[in-house]
Amino acid sequence: MVNTYFFIVLNLKNNLIMIKVIPLLVTLVFTLTTSAQKNTQAYIVKTNSLKVKKVIETFFEGLHKGDSIIVSTTLHRDIKIQTTSTNKLGENTLTTDTKEKLLTSVANKKPEHIYFEKLLSFDIKIDGNLASVWTPYEFYLNGNFSHCGANSFQLFNNNGKWEIIFLVDMRRRDNCNALKEKK
Prior knowledge:
7 strands, NTF2-like_dom_sf, 3-methyl-2-oxobutanoate hydroxymethyltransferase
C-alpha cells in the first residue's frame, strides 16, 4: 500500500512537472523559430539592400569614369530613362532618353571633363524582387557646382542580379545646399 501511495504521488508530481514543462518547451521552440525567421528575413533585407546600393554605386563609378561598359552592367535591357527639370520660362519639362543615348553620352565624355555626382543619401526600399532607391545629389563639373536634385531608381532582381529598370532624375539650380554654402 505504501509503495502504491508513493507511486501515485510520484506519478502526480511527474505529471504536474510535465504539464508545466510542455507549454514552456512549446513556447521556447515557437520563440526560437520566430526569432530565427525574423533574423533570416532581416539578413535577407540587409543583404539585398547592400546589393542594390552596390549597383547604384557601380552606375556612378562608370559615369564618373566615362566608362559605358561599367554603366551598362547595371542596366536592364528594357530600362526607361527620364529627366525632369524647369526650363528658363519656368515650365516643368520631362525628357525621355534611350539606353543607347545614355551609354553613348557616357562613352563620349571628354577626358578633360571631370564629373562628380555627390550622392547625399540613399533611401532604399525593397519588396521581393522590386527595389526603389531615392538619392538626393549635387552635381559638379570640373570641381564646380552645376546643379542639384534627386535620382529615383527602380531596380528588378533579375534572377539574382539587381538591374536598374527605371531611372528618373530631377535637376534644379535653386534651393541647393551647395549654393547656400558658397554665399
